[in-house]
Amino acid sequence: MHPITNSLISKPHIAPLDTGMRAALIRLAKTTRTVCLALLAGSILYLAPVAWADNCDQARALFRQSAKTTDFQVKLKLLNQAARLCPDEAAIWNNLADAEENLGRTDQAIIHYQKALSINPNLAVAHFSLGDIHFHRGEYQKALDSYSAGLKLEPGDSIAMRNRQEAESRIQASGGVLSAEYITSRLQGGQQEGDLQLMGVGGSRARAGYSGQSNQLSGQRSAPSKMAFQNILFDSGSAKIKASSHAQLKELGLALKDIFRNPSARLFIEGHTDNRGSAGYNQKLSQKRSESVRHYLAQRFSLDRNRMEVRGFGITKPVASNDTAEGRAKNRRVEITLTQ
How many beta carbons lie within 10 A of that of residue 267, not counting itself? Predict the structure, then answer.
């Protein structure tokens, strides 16, 4: 839900899956997100041709009035009137969709967020809002697509990055596979998650402001990009890769063949475990497992093993609690970090 106000876009944003919550449930955590629109002479809406000027003036007044009320039924009425008067303004459709989303009318909200994007494809908040709705519905691939589209426009949005990571995890946990096309786009995006936990993050974060310009600086080396794979599995107490993991490894290998066309691309393969067993045992096991992944990728896809460094971290970098089976499953993972 990202409403556009007089000079700002503010949105309580979904932060999926608080710590300890069952995987099937989502609790919405609220945070404030502000996105500054480019304004001309204090106007919040692009003026349509002269024949539409009067109608758009009326729509502008309704738009401002809607931003002053917290009653979503009133917002809905005002913004529907504004959309009829001046139908070519993305801000109106975005806020109309936001009101509908708050009222639980998500089918209609999707239609109107898409309408906003048809007018202005660069409206990152509409992409993020669609991602939130799809995530809440359990449509994780659609959520991935929407979050990724928004992050191309606003790459520093930490909440969208966190939610995208959680959607990736949900797809894998349900037996799905992340495609080579998606992995390539994700790793080459240069969007750094930094120290954000991959799963089960509670609470909320303030969102960075948006000036309408990319946060990426031209001419800079891309920041490292990291992905976690919980569907690359091994036999218990072993570094032998399970056959059920081959489908995901195939997609990863195809993505890396494309990525490694860049001679400066380098890969770090990290192995992680839960806390069952001693720290020393798990460190050695995670090292062997990361080596198994490198060997598989080098052998099956003719990738240069010298460009793939392996690391075993054992129990030292958990992303979830080891007190539950679900948390331990999240901690048993392989992470891929690309630099180029």
Answer: 24
**Which of 104, 103, 101 lies closest to 114, judged by CA?**
101
Average pLDDT over every residue of 315-336: 90
b/e map 14-44, b = 16+ CB within 10 Å: bbbbeeeeeeeebeebebebbbebeeeeeeb
Helix (H) or strand (E) holding 285: helix 279-301
Q: Write the pLDDT tens digit of every residue in 51-108.
A: 457 899 999 999 999 999 999 999 999 999 999 999 999 999 999 999 999 999 999 9
The one-character DSSP state at 243 is: G
pTM value surpassing 0.85: no
Q: Flag the least confident range among 114-118, 237-241, 244-248, 311-315.
A: 237-241
Q: Enumerate residues 6+ apart whose C-beta is below 8 A from 189.
A: 148, 151, 152, 155, 225
Nearest-Å Rg of the Cα atoms of the chain is 23
Burial of 63 (0-12, 13-18, 19+ CB in 10 A): buried
Contact between 33 and 9 (Cβ < 8 Å): yes
Distance CA 138, CA 333 (A): 22
* 8 Å CB contact between 106 and 90: no
Q: What domains sit in the chain, N to C, each tagged with a CATH number?
A: 1-177+208-214 (1.25.40.10), 225-339 (3.30.1330.60)
Cβ-based neighbour number of residue 300 at 10 Å: 12
Cα-based angle 225, 227, 233 (whole degrees, multiple of 5)? 150
Q: Is the dihedral of CA 145, 264, 177, 331 positive or negative?
A: negative
Residues 251, 254, 260, 262, CA torsion sign: negative
Tokens linked to 131: 């991602």
Q: Distance between alpha carbon 287 and the CA centroid of its chain, in Å? A: 29
Given a contact cutoff of 8 angstroms between Cβ atoms, the answer to whether 96 and 112 are in contact is: yes
For 70-104, letters b (16+ CB in 10 Å) and e give eebeebbebbbbbbebbbebbbbbbbbbbbbbbee
